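If your schedule permits, I should be very grateful for your opinion on a structural question. I have a record of one protein: its chain in single-letter code and its fold written as C-alpha cells. Would you kindly read the sequence against the C-alpha cells and tell me how you understand this chain to fold? Thank you for your consideration; the sequence and its C-alpha cells are set out here.


***
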Amino acid sequence: MPFTDRQVNALRPKKVRYEVREPGRSGLCLRISPHGEKIWAFRYRYAGDHRRLVFGTYPEVGVADVHLKLAEAKKKLHAGHDPNGDALLRTQPVRRQPTTEVLVDRYVEHAAKTMRPKTVKEDRRILHTEVLSVWPGRLAKDITRSDVMELLKGIEERGVYVMRNRVAGLLSRFFLFALDEGLIDASPAVQIRRLRKVSNEKVERARDRFLTKEEIQSFWHNLGNIPVTPSMRAALKWALVTGQRRGEVAGTPRAEIDDHSAVWAIPGTRTKNEQQQLLPLPDLALQVLQEADAVRVRPEPTRTNRKDRRPYDSTPSPWLFPSKRYGRPISAEAMTCAIVRHRSMLGIGDATVHDLRRTVATWMGEIGIAKDLIASILNHTPKGVTELHYNKATMIGQKRKAMERWGAWLERVIAGLPVRGEVVKLRGGA
C-alpha cells in the first residue's frame, strides 16, 4: 500500500535517525532525522550498484507529488537509464565515490561472508548508531582524519570509553575494506590510538572474577528462589557444571547429547572456534539433564475450553532449554539478564554468566587438573602449530576423568562438605 499523509504525519523522530520503507517493494522510503526532518528517497540498483535518489523533504514534497516523481524515476530505470539523470553517474570515477550509507551496506554485505553473524550484527548496529548518525549522506572520499577524530571525541565526551575504542577499531576495518575495494584512495582511520587510561584508571581491564566456594553454594541453592523459568534454572546450572559458553548452552538441541555414552557433542557450527567439542558429562551434569528433560514438555493448560487456545501438544521440545514458546530455545541474552537482575538474591556479587566459565577453569586448576585438559574442556583454540593443524586427538578419556573429578568436587562444595585434601574416586576413562 502506498504512503498516505496520515501515515507520514504519524511518524515521530527518535534518538537516532531511522528509515521507513513503503510497503509493496516500491523502493520508496522516508528517512526521519532526530530533529524531525522527513526526507523522501528512492532506493534502487543500477549497473550492479545500490543507489539512492532523494526527492525532497516532506511536506514540501507531498505524498501525491512524490509518487509522481517515483513513477518518472522508475520509467527511466526501466528504459535502462539512471533515474538521477546524470550521465557522469555511470562512469567509473563517480561510481567509486559512494556515500557513507552505501559504503556501510557494502561493508555489511562483505562482512556477512567472512565474519560470524553475531559480529556482523554488532558492526551494523554500531555503524548505524555511532557513524551514520554523525555522517549522513557524506561521500566516503570526503571523510578526513579530523572527521574521524571528532567523531571519536564526541563518543569520548559521553563517557563511554570502551565504545570509543570499539568504534575506532571498527572504523579501521571499515575504511580498510573501502580502500581494498578501490572506493577510496586512502584510509582516514589508520593507526588510531586506543584509550588506555582515563583519570589514571584503565579503560579496558580483563576480568578475573570467579565464584568462591561460598558463592558457588549460594548460587546453586538460590536459583530456586529467583523468578525465572525452570528451564532457565537448569541452563544456569548446566553452564556452571560444563563450563561451556552461554551461547552454546542456550541453543543446545537435545539431540547433541548421547545418553548412552554421556557425551555432549557440540558441532563446529555452534562453537566460537568452529571446532567440534566432545564433552563427557559427570554425574552432576546428568542430574541437571534429568531436571531439564522434565520441563521440556509444555504444561497441560488448566482451562481446555478456551476457543482461542492452540491445541495442546505434549511433544517434548527439541531444545534442551526451551523458552516459554517451546518451539525456540532460551537466548544467551536471557541468561545474562537472569544473572544480572538477581545477583543479590543469588549472593554472587557482581558476577556475570561468563564468570561461571572462569569459575570452572579456576577451580579445575586448584584441584590439580592439567592446563591442557582445562583448555580442551573449555574448547579453547590451540596456539601451537602442531596442536592447531596436526593433533586432532579428542582426549575423551582424559577429559572424562577430569570432568568427573570436577563434578565430584562441585557436588561437595554445593553440599557444604569439606574438599581440601580429599581423594576423589574416579571411574575409568572411555
Q: What stands out?
A: Residues 87-96, 388-392, 421-430 have pLDDT under 50 and may be disordered. The two ends are 64 Å apart (CA to CA). DSSP finds 17 helices and nine strands in the chain. The longest strand covers residues 49-58.
